[in-house]
């Protein structure tokens, strides 16, 4: 008979929390796993410490309150710190969380122009050379 693996304190806490909350069983197993539980506790602790998440007791029951305004402030601070460390400059407008789209070439299709002739070092083969070799529109070789 195999011995049951011993659960850490983090696994026990996350296991109790997921038993109380309506969480699907595959997600419960992942959250209460050996590596999932410490990660969950670290994220929950950081959210509580920064004030993004708070607990309020009403009628003897705990209610979890998420402050979206505070979350936005924390996100901006984290992004600023990352930019300072990497040396990036802030974009002119910060209305979106997505990075700006790359600028397209002046070509109408948005693709870079290139020369496909073999002498110019292009990567596409020249069709006239393929026709000369008889490879263009040729049937595949028969299997033996």
Q: What gap, in angstroms, lies between the N and C termini?
A: 57 Å
How many H/I helical runs? 5
| Strands, total number | 2
Our estimate of the beta-strand percent is: 5-15%
Please list the strands of the largest sheet in the order they lie side by side: 1-2
Averaged pLDDT, please? Answer: 76
Helical percent range?
Answer: 40-55%
What does the model show?
Helix 1 (9-20) crosses helix 3. The protein has 5 helices and 2 strands; from the N terminus they run H-H-H-E-E-H-H. 42% of the residues lie in helices and 8% in strands. Among the domains are: 9-50, no CATH class; 53-95, no CATH class. The chain has a two-stranded antiparallel ribbon. Residues 105-123 have low confidence and may be disordered. The chain has helices at 9-20, 25-31, 36-50, 68-86, 127-133; strands at 53-58, 61-66. The longest helix has 19 residues, at 68-86. The two termini are 57 Å apart. The chain has 144 residues and is mainly alpha-helical.
Topology (SSEs and partners):
Layout: H1 9-20, H2 25-31, H3 36-50, E1 53-58, E2 61-66, H4 68-86, H5 127-133
Antiparallel strand pairs: 1-2
Helix pairs in contact: 1-3
């Amino acid at each position: 008979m195999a011995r049951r693996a011993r659960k850490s304190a983090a696994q026990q806490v996350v296991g109790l929390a997921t038993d109380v909350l309506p969480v699907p069983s595959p997600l419960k197993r992942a959250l209460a796993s050996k590596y999932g539980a410490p990660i969950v506790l670290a994220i929950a602790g950081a959210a509580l410490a920064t004030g993004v998440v708070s607990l309020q007791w009403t009628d003897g029951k705990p209610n979890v309150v998420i402050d979206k305004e505070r979350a936005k402030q924390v996100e901006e601070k984290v992004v600023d710190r990352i930019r300072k460390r990497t040396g990036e400059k802030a974009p002119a407008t910060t209305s979106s969380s997505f990075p700006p789209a790359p600028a397209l070439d002046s070509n109408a299709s948005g693709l870079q122009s290139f020369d496909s002739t073999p002498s110019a070092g292009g990567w596409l083969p020249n069709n006239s050379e393929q026709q000369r070799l008889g490879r263009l529109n040729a049937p595949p070789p028969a299997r033996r």
